[in-house]
Amino acid sequence: QVQLIESGGGLVQAGSSLRLSCVASGRTFSNVAMGWFRQAPGKEREFVATIIWSGTRHAYADSVKGRFTISRDNAKNTVWLQMNSLKPEDTAVYYCAAAGAGFYSEYVPRSENEMGYWGKGTLVTVSS
């Protein structure tokens, strides 16, 4: 059974940092892009950051650029999202995702339609 399990969410004050983790099990995702998306209350799910299989290319939403950093360790089947200088508008459920295709691709996906596997999410709440 393929699973993506997120952890690291919580309630923090504005300006704080959090590090989200996503551990994959059931198969390896070392050869595809992985990423993070988020869904705020009452809003559509949106792209946050993605990283290609090798970790050498990334993409970020403009709203998080310069504050969030995505990274991965294929040996641990894990991807992280380091979130610094958190703002109340970062409050959302954060979902880990893995591409369903594009093995060893240099293309950096940004659309949730390009992701084939999803975790159940972890809640991040940023108070002002």
Question: Describe it for me?
Answer:
The chain is mostly beta strands and about 130 residues long. The protein contains no helices and 11 strands. It has strands at about 5, 10-15, 20-25, 35-40, 45-50, 60, 70-75, 80-85, 90-100, 115-120, 120-125. A hairpin with a 6-residue loop joins strand 5 and strand 6 (about 60). The radius of gyration is 14 Å and the shape is globular.
Which terms summarize this structure?
single chain; about 130 residues; mainly beta; seven-stranded mixed β-sheet; four-stranded antiparallel β-sheet; 11 strands; about 0% helix
Q: In brief, what are we looking at here?
A:
The chain has 128 residues and is mainly β.
Total number of helices? 0
Radius of gyration: 14 Å
On the 0 to 100 scale, the average pLDDT is 96
Q: Flag low-confidence runs.
A: none
C-alpha termini separation: 40 Å
The helix/strand class is: mainly beta
What is the 3D form? globular
Proportion in β-strands: over 45%
Count the beta strands. Answer: 11
